Amino acid sequence: MSATGRTAMRQEESAVYRYHLLRVALEHFQRNLAQLDDSQLIEVRKRASRTFGIESLVLGTPEAHEVVIDGQHLDAAIAEVSSRYPDTQSFHTDLTANGLDETALRNALYRELVFDAVLQRIGSRHPSVNDIDARLYYELNRDRFRVHEKRTARQILVTINPDYPDNTRVAAQARIGKIADALANRPGRFAEQARRYSECPTALDGGKLGEIGRGQLFPQLDTALFGLREGEISEVIETEMGFHLLLCEKIQPARQVPYARAAADIYTLLDARHRRNCQKTWLSELVRTKKVRGVRNDA
């Protein structure tokens, strides 16, 4: 290669490296390069050197030489980036501010598309997931396929606010007590009482909280709700918000999702995992081989 050709290649690589710098800055700090402080810039350079180095290694493989990226695909990638800006002028202004132009971006995106295509091809080499793999994963991770108990509940809340006579602690407790008395053995009136007296926004919907899983409410409310029978109303419960009454309308017991229903998701999960592992192994071997050969590598 001539000296002119080598200079042109170094300039192109420099521009592509700027793209890696910008991409890392946006991904990790949500900032352009000019907005980074010194410590952030050091971190960005470290990460960009690694991604640029690995990308360069991959683009030098036989697999990369077999990849063809058509102009339409590349144009679509450019259009996707430019669509993030309100207009073309803003797009070009931001490129310039980060040491890039559309040609440099096009070269960087071309490399990125080739890199992705190679990894897709490498990932497709992994062994197919079979039923033994899927069933073994299911048995070893049964808790992941367990639907936990949920309860459909309603609430009545009377808040405590010493600035208002009707909401002092004593007054609020007296009011919730009267509501509890009115509902004694009459859970069917709970929604009506909630609409009339509850100071929670859910009052508009009869105090409806919907389906609740463990840990979603204040601890006191959580303990009370999951100690109720279906159709039962709680005792008065006090939290930092005020005084509460809970109605447990329905209990949906915990259940195990059968393997037949979980199988499709397991196959998808294991296929993606095997694909990633295949890619990681290939990349690690590529980096190791280059280092053994003494090739300078920033990856």
Distinctive features:
Chitinase A, domain 3; two-stranded antiparallel sheet; four-stranded antiparallel sheet; disordered C terminus; 299 residues; alpha+beta; single chain; 11 helices
Structure in words:
There is one protein chain. This protein is α+β, with helices and mostly antiparallel strands and 299 residues long. It has 2 domains: 3-123, no CATH class; 149-253, Chitinase A, domain 3. 57% of the residues lie in helices and 11% in strands. It is built from 11 helices and 6 strands. Strands 3-2-5-4 form a 4-stranded antiparallel beta sheet, with helices on both faces. The longest helix has 34 residues, at 259-292. The chain is elongated, with a radius of gyration of 31 Å. The two termini are 25 Å apart. The model is unreliable at 1-12 and 294-299 (pLDDT under 50).
SSE order, one letter for each helix or strand: HHHHHHHEEHHEHEEEH
Q: Strand sequence of the main sheet, in spatial order?
A: 3-2-5-4
Radius of gyration: 31 Å
Helix share of residues? 55-70%
Low-confidence stretches: 1-12, 294-299
Overall SS class: alpha+beta
Provide a quick synopsis of the model.
By secondary structure, this protein is of the alpha+beta class. The chain has helices at residues 3-29, 38-59, 62-65, 71-82, 88-97, 102-123, 131-140, 169-183, 190-197, 219-225, 259-292; strands at 146-147, 150-159, 208-213, 237-239, 242-252, 255-256. The protein folds into two domains: 3-123, no CATH class; 149-253, Chitinase A, domain 3.
